[in-house]
Amino acid sequence: MTQTKHGICGLCFHSPGCGVIVHFDDEGKIDHLEPDPDAPMGEVLCPISKSARDIVYSDKRLSTPLRRTGPKGTYEFEPVTWDEAYDEIAAKLNELKEKYGPESVGFYAGTGTYERSFKDAYQLKGSEIYLASSVLFPFGSPNTFGVGAPCYTSLGVLAPKVTMGCLHIDMYSDLDNADLILVWGTDPSTSTPPAAFSKLERAAEEGAEIIVIDPRRTKSADLPGAEWLPIRPGTDGALALALAHVIIRDDLHDKDFTENWCQGFEEFAEYVEDFTPEYVSELTGIDADRIEELAESIAEADGATYVMYTGLEYTKSGVQNIRAVMALWAVAGQLDVEGGRNFLHHDAFIPLNKSILKETPGFGKSIGADKFPVYAEYCGGEPHAILLPKAIIDGDPYKIRGLFIQGASILTAWPDPKVWQKAMEELDFLVCIDLQMTRDAAFADIVLPASTAFEQESYCYYGNAIRYREKMIEPVGEAKPNHQILAELAERLGYGSLYAKDPKTLLGSVLEGSGYSLDDLLSAEKFVIKKPGKPMEYKKWEKGLLRKDGKPGFETPSGKFEIKSTVLEKHGYDGLPKYEESFETPVSDPDRFKKFPLILGTGPFKPDMKSCFRAIPRFMKKFPSPAIQISPADAAERRLETGDLATLKTARGSVVMRVFVTDKIMEGFVYAPVGGGGPLGTEEWQAANVNMLTDLEQFDPISGFPVYKTLLCQIKRKRDKRHKIEVPDPTLGCVG
Fold first, then answer.
1. In which domain, by residue range, is 20 found?
2. Is the pTM of this model over 0.85?
3. What is the layout of strands, in order, in the sheet containing 209-213?
4. Of the candidates 305, 474, 686, 701, which lies 20 to 30 Å from 480 by C-alpha distance?
5. What CATH number does residue 42 fall under?
6. Which is it for the CA torsion 432, 434, 440, 444, positive or negative?
7. Mean pLDDT, to the nearest integer, of 444-464?
8. Is 599 strand, coil or helix?
9. What does residue 102 show for φ and ψ, rounded to 5 degrees?
10. CA angle centred on 154, ends 540 and 651, rounded to 5°
11. How many Cβ atoms sit within 10 Å of the Cβ of residue 73?
């Protein structure tokens, strides 16, 4: 008889933790998952959940610590014990510290470390959210880095903090009550948590108007009554400014808010005068009349909100593009109203104890001193990871000689993998910690096996609720939880007392001052404690509900909604959400556009976990090749058909992928998947690292985020086979 257990999904750490019912086979192994509607976030599961068994028991899982035996660039390792691995790591780190100083060692944390207990143990003190690990701070190194440097932080932290004084997660979109919903630069049908798309579906069925602004026609645009507005990638900020232009021009703006609660409205109104619908239509490709109509709809809707994720980040003015949308919503009077883009009650959250967090030993001593100051200010003094290659290769400002990479695959995630590979070859010592081999591990000296969240005790935090994570199965082989690995490493380095190894001890300390105890949690039904909710209140800035001091206004330096940001101006940036063409577009670089007449966007191939799924045979059988999505018109012009092998090229390099012709992508734009270039998957996936087409020189000067969405490219058909020339054919004569 199949056994079941109620728990929390342990596959991805992008969501707070979806409630699941775990089904086990006769051997006690995970067989499959089903939703647990009575648990937090258990209403619906994402498609990735169907691969739980494949991921946990993959024959590509790392099951023991490994030490290099062959040259760098190979996967020649021998098994060692945990003690041997720790001893070697500690000895090498102490050697580097003695010779070159503790700052010569760095740490890079990826999304594989986003499990909640890890985040609460290793978040940097002063950082608004978990982005990187503090484990080397007591060692003396300020050089910790994280995946927040190329992802989410622009939307999640920087743009909302400098504008409204809050985080993206301190707000929500009232999809249940909105008459108008803009799905802007994201695909909720493939995102986590998956419940958001269910709400969108219900809203569509109940008559809400849904507008999808995206170069791709996502599933949201197929909902009843939905409309797809294709937009030239990177011009979203211009569209937001044009919409604000119409609302202000036609006197549709919220005058009380703009007069009493805004900083910089007059300058903003003057700036957007130039962003007429006609001008922005030329930039975006959206009809001028449609821009007029949409602006009026936003201002006059009985509740308008948006669903947005990271699609706007990856261009030269990514932070400002996002801020332009936020300013638009405030000016339109759709901020913190029924059906709008709303703030959560601060006192509805269960407070977590942050006193255990470790402070940087000195941002001024890091390789990021004086660079990306806004990022550093909100990220606890974390130096930006885009600076790592120059530090390792050129010693700018000094050499990083040792590096940890945990839960990440830098060589398949960051632009210009050739430069990153050269950097890894230069390192004196590299440690990789992951579920499976990565491309980075080919250059590692030690590789350590991490467990999935199914294989560990922990907890998940939902803002107004917290749930204990019960271990579902024992770890595969000798794998260990990420937080335990670092706690044991800290012990070898002489400061183990600073990091709790036992998850219950950690949880007890995190709950201090919350009003709840560990016993409360462990005795609760399904191990869930939830803070009672409060009646909804709107326009919270009027009631002192957004500031820690209880005064009316916003948690910003001026106490107002800062369309003109004090923080940005303090650090030398423009305070207004100004639009800039990206570095390499049909407008900014018309000469290059003649040679590369298509716009390239890159990103995950959903449902996917980037390079992780390349180890899953069932997934590879279904998707054996990376596929370039291209419109029928662009394909016909190049004599391309679905399944053709093609070369995708930019000014920086080329990759070979298959073609997928679809009418769900706008003409002039192609989309190519990330996740190739690692040691797993088919030969075609292993050979296709799309980041060969990108570079480290194009980035948003505020966030440091690389440009992934607006590069110029060309695609040409490639022969599937090349035949060996055994004897030249003389009959061809001069024709040959």
1. 4-57
2. yes
3. 227-229, 209-213, 180-184, 304-308
4. 686
5. 2.20.25
6. positive
7. 95
8. strand
9. -65, -25
10. 155
11. 11
Closest CA to 531 of 540, 521, 541: 521
Alpha-carbon distances, residue 570 vs 100, 162, 265, 359 (angstroms): 35, 11, 19, 23
Distances (CA, A) of 638 to 30, 601, 630, 634, 679: 47, 19, 11, 7, 32
pLDDT digits (tens, 9 = 90+) for 288-320: 999 999 999 999 999 999 999 888 999 999 999
Claim to verify: residue 524 and residue 558 sit in the same structural domain: no
Task: Decide: helix, strand or coil at residue 648.
Answer: strand
Read off the pLDDT of residues 376-419 as tens digits, 9 standing for 90 and up.
Answer: 999 999 999 999 999 999 999 999 999 999 999 999 999 999 99
Structure-token pair, residue 151:
């992802």
518-556 pLDDT per residue, tens? 999 999 999 999 998 888 899 999 999 999 999 999 999
DSSP string computed for 289-305: HHHHHHHHHHHHSSSEE
Contact 318, 154 (CB under 8 A): yes
Packed helices 277-284 and 288-300: angle between N→C axes, nearest 10 degrees: 110
Integer-rounded Cα Rg, in Å, for the chain is 26
The answer to whether residues 166 and 156 touch, using CB atoms and an 8 Å cutoff, is: no
C-alpha distances in Å from residue 539, one per residue of 340, 341, 551, 715: 11, 11, 13, 50
735 pLDDT higher than 50: no
The H or E element containing residue 522 is helix 518-523
- Residue 731 inside a domain? The answer is no
The first and second tokens of residue 664, run together, are 């769900």
CATH code of residue 85: 3.40.50.740
Cβ(410)–Cβ(108) below 8 Å? yes
